[in-house]
Amino acid sequence: MKANTSIEQAICAVIMIALQEGHRPVSGTTLAGWLEISESYLMKTMRKLAVAGIVDSHVQRGGGYTLARPLDEIGVGDVVAAVGGEPTVTTTGLPERIFPDGEHTASVVGLLNDSFAAAGRDYLEALNRLSLADLVRSDAVADGAVDWASRLDT
């Protein structure tokens, strides 16, 4: 299984926000610059993170993004669900077309779909065993260690 680019970018963006010096908002321009993506693409990702309650968006002058909750309360699965959506696998209707026993086939398809749904829940639960705080040095998060904007300009 391979993480898609949006998920990886979202995890990095949230960690960057957590590490921002003085926990000041990090601008979209700064995040997009570091992630090497367009601001419009970043805004779509950040909106999903905001809706999920992972980041807060500050639109006033000097605004940007801050964490909506502590880093140790944000699981990797939270970010995956916010950006990638809930993992879903469902049947395509092929069994119903191939196997003529309508009642039995419907029952089997139901079992398959239930199993796929359970696997999706298990996937997110497993990812949430790892918080984003587990991915950074705790002393770096305490008051923020990096001024991302000034480092981008150098």
TrEMBL record:
This is Rrf2 family transcriptional regulator. GO terms for molecular function: DNA-binding transcription factor activity. It comes from the Bacteria. PANTHER family: HTH-TYPE TRANSCRIPTIONAL REGULATOR YWGB-RELATED, WINGED HELIX-TURN-HELIX TRANSCRIPTIONAL REGULATOR, RRF2 FAMILY. GO terms for cellular component: cytosol. It holds the Pfam family Rrf2.
